UniProtKB/TrEMBL annotation:
Its EC number is 3.2.1.39. This is glucan endo-1,3-beta-D-glucosidase. Residues 1-23 form the signal peptide. The gene is BnaA05g36990D. PROSITE patterns: GLYCOSYL_HYDROL_F17 (PS00587). It is found in: Cell membrane. InterPro entries: GH, Glyco_hydro_17, Glyco_hydro_17_plant, X8. It catalyses: Hydrolysis of (1->3)-beta-D-glucosidic linkages in (1->3)-beta-D-glucans. Keywords: Cell membrane, Disulfide bond, Glycoprotein, Glycosidase, GPI-anchor, Hydrolase, Lipoprotein, Membrane, Signal. It comes from the Eukaryota. GO terms for cellular component: plasma membrane; plasmodesma; side of membrane.
Length: 408
């Protein structure tokens, strides 16, 4: 597939308009199985010049990973479908993959997530039975290299796993995948009377309702691919440059506008806070606290001596404040409330006396109040203000790919 330089520049120009949107981000998917592809250094220069903050690599291309070093761009690196069988069967293979493709580049390259496969259930169904094992082995390898706080593990799913995404409130995953998933006209949902102004919102809500049906109610969603048909064949008369520009421009405006689909907005009424578990090990809490205040970039000023959240001066209280500050700021881009099993979410506001936790209505000068960027802020629903526009291929909107960010 040819990828003219002007095409990449055009996509980046569209994206750059909202690169600084507070509650959203626009990212770029990068595949390297191309002819006439710009050099990695040229691609990174374009990303930087248009202030792109997130990229997803379809594979662990060493040249791209090196080129992305010292840029602060958040990188999701991909395990190919062909690699999953070996990684799922042999923990040593997962360890080798993480050491070679992640640990070797961190911290110079800001790798924040690993996408294990791409649309595995529909594109490589023979791999599906071992997908959970591959995810688990990759996570264990991250733990072994002390990267599990920084790097999250995920697997992108196609919308094809939801055979009937409309109306969204009745959407469920295909029963054939339940076991695996468990280990533009105005549209009205007749069951909830929610109005959808775009198919994009309806399909995102369908994903949340499908997850709810399997009790996956706390997993954020990132839309990893959406766009115009890539082939532009003679039978696709609507696949014109003008229509593609209209679609991408309006999508970016939609993402930057805030809010989610009708269902996510209606269901999103309770803020979840992240706090230390009562029975958590103190040594693990200390490790989690140090990471949150360091690499996690949590605002730990309020828990310093003499500050508003210093007392009570104990590890659980300090860890809870730091965990929550990190979680409120980062949950929209894949940050989770786990910290090596020492943290848990709660709808109860943990603020007390003069100490207001980030996300609390009373937060005013301590941690601060940071609205979620995407995903559920309550047990169900959320918004999807994060989109990766693919420069590798622009698939049909009908096969919108969603990433379920697994809390591993």
């Amino acid at each position: 597939m040819l990828l003219p330089r002007w095409f990449l520049e055009a996509i980046l120009l569209l994206i750059s308009a909202l690169a600084f949107t507070n509650a959203a981000f626009i990212g770029v998917n990068i595949g390297t199985d191309l002819t006439n592809m710009p050099s990695p250094s040229d691609i990174v220069s374009l990303l930087k010049s248009h202030q792109i903050t997130h990229v997803r690599l379809y594979d662990a291309n060493s040249h791209m990973l090196k080129a992305l070093s010292n840029t602060t761009i958040q990188v999701t690196v991909g395990v190919t479908n062909q690699e999953i069988l070996k990684i799922g069967r042999f923990p040593s293979s997962a360890a080798s993959w993480v050491n070679k493709n992640v640990a070797a580049y961190v911290p110079s390259t800001n790798i924040t997530a690993i996408a294990v496969g791409s649309e595995v259930l529909t594109e490589s169904p023979h791999v599906a039975p071992i997908l959970a094992s591959a995810l688990n082995n990759i996570h264990k390898a991250l733990v072994a290299t002390n990267l599990n706080f920084q790097v999250k593990v995920s697997t992108p799913m196609s919308m094809d796993v939801m055979p009937k995404p409309f109306p969204p409130s009745t959407s469920t995953f295909s029963p054939s995948w339940n076991t695996t998933l468990s280990a533009v006209k105005q549209i009205v949902d007749p069951n909830t009377l929610l109005h959808y102004d775009s198919m994009f919102d309806a399909m995102v809500d369908a994903a949340y309702y499908s997850m709810e049906a399997l009790n996956f109610s706390k997993i954020p969603v990132v839309v990893t691919e959406t766009g115009w048909p890539s082939s532009g064949g003679s039978d696709e008369t609507a696949a014109t440059v003008g229509n593609a520009e209209t679609f991408n421009s309006n999508l970016i405006k939609r993402v930057g506008g805030g809010g989610g689909g009708g269902g996510s907005e209606a269901l999103n009424g309770t803020t979840l806070f992240c706090v230390a578990k009562v029975d958590a090990d103190d040594d693990k809490l200390e490790n989690g606290l140090n990471w949150a205040c360091g690499q996690g970039r949590a605002n730990c000023g309020p828990i310093q001596p003499g500050q508003s959240c210093y007392l009570p001066n104990d590890i659980k209280s300090h860890a809870s404040f730091a965990y929550n500050d990190y979680y409120q700021k980062m949950k929209g881009v894949g940050g989770t409330c786990d910290f090596d099993g020492t943290a848990i979410t709660t709808p109860r506001d943990p603020s007390y006396r003069t100490c207001a936790y980030t996300g609390s209505p009373n937060a005013n000068g301590t941690g601060g109040n940071f609205p979620p960027a995407l995903g559920p802020a309550s047990q169900v629903g959320g918004n999807a203000n994060a989109v990766f526009v693919s420069i590798y291929h622009l698939p049909f909107l009908a096969t919108l790919a969603l990433t379920l960010l697994l809390v591993l």
